[in-house]
Amino acid sequence: MKSQIQDHARSLRGSSLPALATAMIPLILLIFGAAKLDEFVAASFDRYHLRVMMDVGIAIVLAVSLNIVNGYTGQFSIGHAGFFAVGGYVSAALTYYVTMSVWGEAILIETPVSALWPFPHLPPVGAWIFVGAAILGGLVAAGAGYLVGLPSLRLRGDYLAIVTLGFGEICRVLLERSNPQFFDVDSMREATVADWLPLPLGSAQGFTDVPKYTSLFWVYAFVAVTLVFAYRLKQSATGRALLSIREDETAAQAMGVNVTLYKVRAFVFAAFFAGLAGALYAHQPGTILRPLDAGFMRSFDVIIIVVLGGMGSISGATLAAVLLTVMAEWLRDPTHVWYLALYIGLARVALTPRDNWRDLVVIGSSAVALESCRAAGLFALSFPLLSVQVTGYELVYATLLVVFCILRKDVLRGVLFVAGVVAFAELVRWLALKYPVVRFGPTEIPLRLGDYRMVIYALLLVSVMIFRPQGLLGLKEIWDFLPSRRHAPRTAAPRVSGR
Amino acid sequence: MMNSSQMFGRRRATAALLTAAAVLSVGVGWFSTARSALADDAGKPIVIGHYGSLTGAEATFGKSTSNGIKLAIKEFNAAGGLNGRPIELREYDTKGDPKEAGTVVTRLVASDKVTAVLGEVASSLSLAGAPICQEHGVPMITPSSTNPRVTKVGDMIFRVCFIDAFQGFACARFAADRNAKRVATLFDQSSAYSEGLARDFKRAITKLGGEVPSEQRYKAGDNDFTAQLVAIRGTNPDMIFIPGYYTDVGNIAIQARRLGITCPLLGGDGWDSDQLAKIGGEAIEGAFYSNHYAAQDETPKVQDFIRKYKAEFGDIPDGLAALGYDAAKLLFDAMKRAKSLEGKDLAAAIAATRDFDAVTGNVTIGPDRNAVKSAVIVQMKNGERTMVARVEPEQAKE
Amino acid sequence: MADLLQILTMAVTVGSLYALIALGYTMVYGILKFINFAHSDVVVLGAWGSFFFAAALLPRMGFGTPLPWWAGGMALLFAMALCGLTGFLIERFAYRPLRGAPRLNVLITAIGVSLFLQNAGQLQFTLVRGDDTAQPPAPALRLPFGTQPQRMPTLLPDQDLLVIGEGQSTARLGSLDVVIIATALALMVLLDLLVRRTKFGMAMRAVSFNTDSAALMGVPVNRVISMTFVLGAVLAAAAGFLYVLKFPTVQQTAHPTWVLVGLKAFVAAVVGGIGNLRGAVLGGFLIAFAEQFGESYLQKYLGSGLKDVYVFSALILVLLVRPTGILGSPLREKV
Q: What is the CATH T-level fold of the domain B46-162+298-365, as seen in this structure?
């Protein structure tokens, strides 16, 4: 009996490559891709787009890591920002104080590792300090994850959630009560024990002047590690145990799954990667760490991404991280209502069941191409002939939509849909530009559409939840939409977190 | 395996890809040709940026600052702008989050290519934005970040308000002059402003021979201070220093008076708002706070500003609105004096500001790019703000 | 001694406010099994609604200062009506379409609704009747609320009813405290009677026990859920009104005050055993006692400013000893 099960398990594994290789090859490829991306982006985009891409990457790491607890295991954690802050603070303090005590000043250390080939091509010494600090930060966060996971011995569901929330809030208060930061090496040397304990993490002032090592390469290298780990974990025995806990905790227990052990493990893994995300954030140019980073508002941001992407779906979380981060930026500008409307239209087309993988690929690649053109300053002209201002890429988006609808042999509906989107977007934009707000009072300086950013964001969030409750991809991954997988047996029907 | 519909599907996908590629290339060819028709600079607006907390918990302060800036721009443009070039404001919301501050400042300097940046109220957000402005060589003036580290970021970063150390000293000096030896503090431990000011006040008052018998903390969002005030009451202080924002002070004052605490209250420039008298009511009567200017100042400048602001926004401006207004005005003044609108020249012009006649007092930009100006101590009398003392910047150096 | 009594008074006052809000959390949880994160924003609406009534509507109707004696009661009723309607609308348009969806989705929706209310409340339009050139200009009517904090008009004088001790060390029991405690207790008793003695209460309990069987027994489930939201919102309105009576600075809608009050009330509901009405009341008082006495008597050892830590430590301790809260029934696991 047992051997039969083992045989079956072996046959399920499918791949003939050794496990290490199946993990390492994509990892190496992805990290190589990150290096190339860094070069490409630095050459063709301005710093703002670079920055948004970094924010996206950090959001991906956070979302995919939270997915391990919320998505795979079905445990509801709302203290993820606590781990993020622990990782961020620990790594930042390490880089900052180590650099200061060795080099006398907390600056970027650009010394190459060694002059010998191939070392000059590797990142400089400082970057390796940063990586070491990030991993240590992740480990400390993982320790915190262990502590938070322990109560899951006794607590279930929402009660566990509240404990994680409490953890984040307690982290915040402890950080607020830390000592002031040392800003030069002398004050650090002269410091007494009372200055070191509680740790000099800057209290409410925040922890500043951390050497800014985070580059697009590091962000996406860490994204690669996280994605590969999350994917491999999902395929592993541990991952299946986690999924079984999500589907039915009691049944899993009955089948001999050590529920507490696996829950704690899920917390530890998730916390480790959240810590890495914190480290990336702490070393990013133009940020500072604050105790509020441990507060629950940041946790909510991540939960929103995970739920929007589809519980347990790695590619879903990634996609949602990209969409939400970019959308929040678009909403700053009334002219971007266009993109928003078009993107909603494209997403709607893409998410209808037929042919959606091709649409996704085409939309994705053309969106990237168009955005690159836009960032590079191509077709920055408007049509003087039309009364409305339509810029080139907007037109291209609209054309794409029409093409899809024609291909779908659904011309009438397609045209109506496009016309509707265009009319709506134009109406909103026209209203926004012409009558920034319906004015009643003595105020002469009107509100702009950008002022409604958070209101629109909230409404979009609610409508997505209502109209697509399973998230963008549901329990599936992007590649599950490929035709070769189309008829493959699906995993069990979705039953997410709680009943 | 491969049925006809799938083959058809593949052909369709190829068609879609081709169409997309064709449209793209046509688009590139078509639109990129027409880029050359760029007008020259004359009459084109000068774009300046502002980043602030227009939503979220800090929106009270961000909105005020934003209103002040908008008023200044409106006046400047009405007066003809800079040699006929109007000022255009690009304003982005930070939600009070340093992450967003970093992103929007990058957008302002790298994407929108603004001439100068104004912002942020909170020091922690200014600290996120300042290095980016410094790196891109775009001057930044913060209206009200009091943390000394903000301007230490580099030679492009300026401020028009006090730093914590000076204001802490001014308050301590005033307390000492009033023979208040024992001054308890009650501050918001989650606010960098409040915490920094409390720390510098303690340092200053200890130097002046006073003491802090009780140091009480609260957290943004606390409205009930009974436990802290009962502890303060037990030490029977001569004065209580409350370096918070006016939004919190009302409740503190009311509860202190209810608890029978009669000693005077003392605060910082975060108290400055017309709302304070309303929010605090009778409880705030007789309280002191340090400020940049006295709103009841007879100078027509202050009255004029208040009148215009009220006509524009329907509110009486608070201190943050005045500082935002002044930061913008100072920037325009520097633009007029600057050799060109290049970052370096503009920064040099800002640094050369001497005795600029602002609503919040005469501003001189000191060698470390901080505003050097005197502090006034204001007392609340019959709901009006009356000046009772003045502390000069030279006094702090002793 | 006087200090102790003073802290005790405050703990009871604040505790009754927490309890009122916690009831709303616990009722929704009992029926729909999800955390209604938008509840604290309904409290805000109650506070601002009553402010709007007392400071803007009444003066426009010709009742200037001093406000008439019935202003307090009317403001409370106005806030209750406003919040009840809002609660109904939120349930109808945001939560009902998600009936049967995973709970996490409903939770995100709740966060979305909360974000919406917070940010919509920060926008400001000013309505002016007639032309704005009239002298003196008609008092502006502001909609919704804006980002400036406002002062709640004095609806009730806070007179000392009881003073114990002398000089600097006195404990005072103000009329405001008594009104708050009495109103809160009255509402709680009414709710308890409603739930335990009326047919509607029976329906509520049935839905909370098992939605499907309740539906089979002819209970109009949707109507009961709607009414539960309305009830929770009405209690929240009362809490918001009483809160700004006690702490008269009406903070802007996204101010941490509201988040914090909501969070603590929610913790109170969990401590008492979420889904249990009496538990919520008990939890409310327990949390208030923990933060008040912790802040007063532990600050010698730990320093001040740790209210949140006491609250969350109390929560974790209670949950470790009783995983479903003090009065919560043990979780039934169905296989």
A: Rossmann fold (3.40.50)
